[in-house]
Structures are given as structure tokens and as C-alpha cells.
Amino acid sequence: MPWPTWTPGRGTRSFSCTATRPRPTRSWHADYGWDLDRELLFGVKVFAFIAGVRPRGGGTVVITGSHRVVARFAASLPPQQHYEGHLLGRYLRRDDWFRALSRPGDDDPGRAARFMDREHRTGGIAVRVAELTGQPGDVVLTHPWVLHSGSPNTGGYPRMMLTKNLYRRGCFGAASG
Length: 177
Ligand SMILES: [Fe+2]
Hints:
By secondary structure, this protein is α+β, with helices and mostly antiparallel strands. It has helices at 66-76, 86-92, 96-101, 111-116; strands at residues 43-49, 61-64, 120-122, 125-131, 139-142, 148-149, 161-167. Strand 3 and strand 4 (125-131) form a beta hairpin. Mean pLDDT is 81; it is low at 1-23. The structure holds fe (ii) ion. Residues 29, 31, 148 line the site of fe (ii) ion.
């Protein structure tokens, strides 16, 4: 069953439910390294809608508030810590909510509601899963450390989104543009 863009009993379309579709379990990620200078806003993540994406239609899913969790994680590291992607996952899985979100094989029909309809507080930071929906031409800007995941298209039409990572000038040193 695709998640969280479709929930049994809520869907209005008829489509096949197949285990071959990816599930947003271990695919949560940020597109920017957490070894960038956290004191500056070093970039902006852009999600643009080429075609309309309706609710539960397969839009990118994001974890609101997660950039603060990533910032807290980055601040907990020793100054000379090299980038190692698995460290963030290990840090997140200390929290029951993140661990459950990343658990494969969770076929609970209430899973989408559990993560999308109410906030969870982790160390005082409110997080919740939200689906990006919009009309052609809409643009969503997020903090670069917002965790997100692709989601399978559950509609019978192409859903097209464009994503772009913008960086602050000079954030990789004086030579970068
Ligand atoms: Fe991404």
C-alpha cells in the first residue's frame, strides 16, 4: 500500500495496491549536508508544480519542523565530525515517532492519520508529516534541512513536480558562486 498519499476507505479512485511501489520509510532525507554552517541560512529548497497535484495524489511529503531537529543534531556533533549520512538516521531513530515513521512493513491503515493529522513533539520541537499539493505554477520554498520523501503517484494522470536546491553565495568558500 502506498503511503501516506492513500488510505483504505478514503480513496475515490480505483487503482491497484501493490507492494512493489516504494514506501516512505527509509527514504526520508534532506538534500543538503548537515555539515554546512548552521548559523546561516545557506540555501533554499524549491518545489515547483508543473502539473496539479491533488491531496493524496502523490505529492512530495515533508516533515514540518524537521529542519530544527536536523539543526539540533548538527549542533550535537563534535566540530571536526566528517559528513556521514547514517549518523542522522541513527539520531532520529532515538525518537519513537521517527523510528515508527521509518519502520518498514507497517500496514496499519491508520498510519497516515497517525503521522499527518497530529503533531508530535520531539525534545520540544513540533513535527508532522505534510503532503505538498498545488496547482501548476505554485512554488513551495522550504528550509534546506526539511526532511522529505518522494511518494508514488496514486492518480491516473501524470503528476509533475520540479525540485531545485539553491545555495547561498559563498557558502562553500570564497571561490564558489
Ligand atoms: Fe530530495
